[in-house]
Write a structure and sequence with these properties.
252 residues, alpha/beta, Rossmann fold, 2 domains, 6-stranded mixed sheet
Length: 252
């Protein structure tokens, strides 16, 4: 259920433009820091071609490694293998690259050890993969299996292919944008936090600028999308973590 911010709250209101997770770490960290946190879903997701993903996952020997940049991509794996213990054992011998703590945590829940959790963006993760390949961490002749959504950014595949590495993309989920999302009334000192470029598309830029809300982005990619839409971000998290978002809001 969507909650509308209480404009009489003594605490600064932070509206997270994303669905709330069970035991949501963003809500917990920001609440502990003195913010009044509300989550408002602006996107929906649906699986794409699970049979194609299942066929790829059945052939770990065909790939140099696995690349995932969102928890939703990892959820697609679990959709094919509800029991992670039945995943082909060969994947345990391959590097599984995951950007950010939420994606890395989802990978660990499958029993794998993620690489690249510290990367704050797809571009940074691609650099980690390229460095590993240059040091012979995996066979350069095999492609990396990149699980992504239908609206993925080009950073990962373009940087890897530019470095001479093969990439096999597998679209595993579709993003549905809820266009024209109405913003709640602004709260004094309050924040709207955007978590993806797709989330930026759900609002009217003019309405955001006129709303009185301050705007924050979970990282530089989302901040760029906001800037392209004519919405200046007053705070940008240094990395996609609850702590980094808290620090950015407090610093602003």
């Amino acid at each position: 259920m969507t909650r509308v911010p209480d404009t009489g709250s003594a605490r600064p209101v932070v509206v997270l433009l994303r669905a709330s997770d069970p035991s949501d770490p963003y809500e917990a960290v920001l609440e502990a820091a003195g913010f009044d946190v509300r989550s408002r879903p602006v996107l929906a997701f649906s699986p794409v071609a699970p049979e194609r993903l299942a066929a790829a996952l059945a052939r770990p020997e065909a790939y140099a490694g696995l690349v995932v940049t969102s928890p939703r991509a990892v959820a697609a794996i679990r959709g094919c293998y509800p029991d992670p213990g039945r995943l082909p054992a060969g994947w345990r011998e391959k590097p599984v690259y995951a950007v950010g703590p939420r994606t890395a945590a989802a990978v660990r829940a499958l029993g794998w050890t993620p690489v690249g959790e510290e990367a704050g963006s797809g571009a940074a993760l691609a650099s980690i993969i390229i460095t590993a390949a240059e040091h012979g961490a995996e066979g350069a002749a095999r492609p990396y299996l990149f699980l992504c959504g239908d609206r993925r950014r080009d950073d990962v595949p373009h940087r890897l292919t530019a470095a001479g590495l093969a990439v096999e993309e597998c679209v595993v989920y579709r993003t549905h944008v809820r266009a024209g999302v109405k913003l709640p009334p602004a709260s004094p000192g309050g924040w709207l936090v955007f978590f993806s470029p797709s989330g930026v598309e759900t609002v009217h830029p003019g309405e955001v600028r006129a709303s009185g809300w301050r705007v924050a982005a979970i990282g530089p990619t989302t901040a760029r999308a906001l800037a392209e839409a004519g919405i200046p971000a007053s705070a940008v998290a240094a990395e996609p973590t609850p702590e980094a978002l808290r620090d950015a809001l407090q610093a602003a």
